[in-house]
Write a structure and sequence with these properties.
Blueprint (H helix, E strand, L loop, with lengths): L1 H4 L2 H15 L4 H4 L2 H30 L2
Length: 64
C-alpha cells in the first residue's frame, strides 16, 4: 500500500540508493555533480558552495 502512494521521484531515488548499496564501485565513473548534491541536501550544498568560494578567494590572494 505504501508503494501506491510513493511518487515516481521517490521510487527512482530509492532504487538508486539500493543500487549504490549493492554496487558502490559502479558509481565511480557514473557519479556526477547531481549525485553529490542529491546526497548532501540543500544545507550541505550551500556549505560546499561557500567552501569553494572561500577557497577561490584564498587562492587568488596567494597567487597575486
Amino acid at each position: 500500500m505504501n508503494d501506491e502512494r510513493e511518487t515516481p521521484e521517490r521510487r527512482r531515488e530509492k532504487m538508486r540508493q539500493e543500487e549504490l548499496k549493492r554496487n558502490p564501485a559502479g558509481s565511480v565513473h557514473g557519479g556526477g555533480l547531481s549525485d553529490l548534491v542529491g546526497s548532501l541536501g540543500w544545507k550541505g550544498t550551500g556549505i560546499l558552495i561557500l567552501v569553494i568560494i572561500v577557497g577561490i578567494l584564498i587562492a587568488s590572494l596567494f597567487f597575486r
